[in-house]
């Protein structure tokens, strides 16, 4: 029940800031209107700050962090995802939220495309594993900050670094100029 409530809250927030309209996403990606970018950057900063505060207060369990390995397959998958995101102007979250608006057919098309891509990947997984795509550039379960002892990180700072990063991202979002064309 909590997940449904939070999902509805998230979808409503996406709708309110205009993220359910693919034109707004495309304008953001083209740097023609960076209002959404400011909101996203602020959200990343705010979320990072809240997670670090929750950790310091002892109410965040490290077991909730699941880090996946970074390898060539993830990089290629991210590029394919980014291409689809740019063409459609929707990502999974905005797509589901858009299904409750007048973009329902486009949203369903994007959901179908995502499911088709997942099916294609699942059916071809053994092939990609055999040719070694998942072993190339495999740097493991790396994080930006040292949040867990068992995971390598780029920076030696732990949740304190995450907290500073969060505040910095919120500052960047605040000082980015409003640009609408």
UniProtKB/TrEMBL annotation:
One matching Pfam family: Sulf_transp
Source organism, top-level taxon: Bacteria
Record's protein name: Sulphur transport domain-containing protein
Bilayer-spanning residue ranges: 35-60, 72-99, 105-124, 154-176
UniProt-listed InterPro entries: Sulf_transp_TsuA/YedE (IPR007272)
Keywords of this entry: Membrane, Transmembrane, Transmembrane helix
Coiled coil feature spans: none
Keyword Transmembrane helix applies: yes
């Amino acid at each position: 029940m909590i997940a449904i409530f939070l999902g509805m809250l998230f979808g409503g927030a996406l709708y309110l800031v205009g993220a359910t309209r693919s034109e707004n996403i495309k304008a953001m990606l083209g740097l023609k209107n960076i209002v959404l970018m400011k909101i996203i950057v602020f959200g990343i900063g705010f979320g990072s700050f809240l997670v670090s505060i929750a950790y310091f207060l002892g109410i965040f369990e490290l077991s909730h962090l699941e880090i996946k390995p970074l390898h060539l397959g993830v990089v290629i998958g991210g590029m394919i995802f980014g291409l689809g995101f740019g063409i459609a102007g929707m990502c999974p979250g905005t797509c589901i939220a858009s299904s409750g608006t007048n973009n329902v057919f486009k949203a369903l098309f994007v959901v179908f495309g995502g499911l088709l891509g997942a099916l294609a990947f699942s059916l071809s997984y053994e092939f990609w594993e055999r040719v070694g795509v998942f072993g190339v550039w495999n740097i493991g379960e790396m994080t930006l900050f040292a949040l867990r002892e068992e995971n390598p990180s780029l920076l030696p700072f732990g949740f304190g670094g995450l907290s500073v990063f969060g505040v910095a991202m919120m500052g960047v979002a605040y000082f980015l100029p409003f640009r609408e064309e």
